[in-house]
Amino acid sequence: MILPIVAYGDAVLNTKAAPIPQDYPNLKELVASMFETMYEANGVGLAAPQVGLSIRLFVIDVSPFDEEAFKDEKRVFINAEIVEYSGEEWAFNEGCLSIPDVRGDVFRPEKIRIRYYDENWVLHEQDFDDMPARVIQHEYDHIEGKLFTEKLTALRRRLVSKKLEQIKQGIVNVTYKMRFPRPARKR
Question: Cβ distance 45 to 59 under 8 Å?
């Protein structure tokens, strides 16, 4: 089932997500829906907070960057914890499904070591580099309540501030379902 993607401005995107218990209801269905939603929106990663759930879950499939090199990089990360960052930081022009039409260069370390459970509750501790490491870091930031826009230069943040306000108001042109923040009620 395709889920609406939560738009910039929703508090769930700035909240550190809670760990998932092994008996979390309908987890397999949620994972399948997250992949379906991600593919529908032409994404390479999607975190549970982006579909309105403040839980430590994200999915990635970086094969669109290079189908052959990254063909085995479709993964589910549950209760992930990055245990080490290493290598040189490098810039890449990132975007986010929750922040449509906003992009910017973000510097991230080239390598990570991450501990996580997969969808079958098998524990992994694994090293990633290159594009998989970058996408994992981006999605990991989501479960930590952080957005890529926080890593932009002050000048770039000022340049995109109007667009961010428009997204909060639902003024976007996307081909996928989105859920926008509700304005505060006046008392």
Answer: yes
